[in-house]
Amino acid sequence: MSFFSLQTETPTFTLKVSSRARRLRLIVKETGEVIVTCPRWISRRRATQFVVQHESWIAVQQEKARRREGPRYSLSGGSLEEYQENKERARTIVTGLIAEFNAHYTFSYGTVRIKNTSSRWGSCSAKGNLNFNYRIAFLPRHLAEYIVVHELCHLKELNHSKRFWECVAETIPHYDLCRAELRK
Questions:
Q1: Could you say which of 3.10.590.10, 2.40.50.100, 3.40.50.2300, 3.30.2010.10 is the CATH number of the domain covering 80-183?
Q2: The 34-39 sheet, strands edge to edge
Q3: CB under 8 Å to 21, separation ≥6 — which residues?
Q4: Which residue, 5, 105, 113, 175, has fewest beta-carbon neighbours within 10 Å?
Q5: Rounded-to-integer distance, Cα 3 and Cα 33, Å
Q6: Please, are residues 55 and 10 in contact by the beta-carbon 8 Å criterion?
């Protein structure tokens, strides 16, 4: 995948050329950034035309992004330097929360890792290893608690079944509100 930033009379956008893409795809991120993903066989000129054709839709989406209220918690945009500066702080928060909530659950787990992922706040492997995004250090405590409990409960139920959510609700009864807040 290669990246190009184009500045034309059209809205500024980032072009991602992907060998896996089958068609042109246009997204407007919550920051208002416009990203076009296209197959290798489509020219930059055609991608620019695509943006021009969707200019009014882009403007509407960017206006919606500007109007959104409340904090937004992002998984993207962190640099390697930011990751390295905050990794240990995140580890301290996560290990403290694991100890606090696992006093209730008493699950056994493997390694706890702090990562710089772009699409997940946390994950749990089939081997019982727990992984967390370093940006958990920037979240309010109630959201960090939810993420840690969510991954701890995957040690018992490696799915999102009714039993899994019942496990989460044992210590985070308002988990649905936390999920909604993280998805903003």
A1: 3.30.2010.10
A2: 2-6, 13-18, 34-39, 25-28
A3: 37, 38, 39, 40
A4: 5
A5: 14
A6: yes
CA separation for the pair 92, 80 (Å, rounded): 19
**CA 11 vs CA 1, 15, 43, 75: distances in Å:** 22, 12, 18, 24
Amino acid (1-letter code) at residue 115: K
For the chain, give every domain's residue range. 2-67, 80-183
| Cβ(132)–Cβ(113) below 8 Å | yes
CB 36 within 8 A of CB 13: yes
pLDDT confidence of 69, banded at 50, 70, 90? low
Cα distance between residue 121 and residue 130, in whole Å? 11
pLDDT digits (tens, 9 = 90+) for 126-148: 999 999 999 999 999 999 999 99
DSSP string, 63-116: HHHHH--S----SS---HHHHHHHHHHHHHHHHHHHHHHHHHH------EEEE-
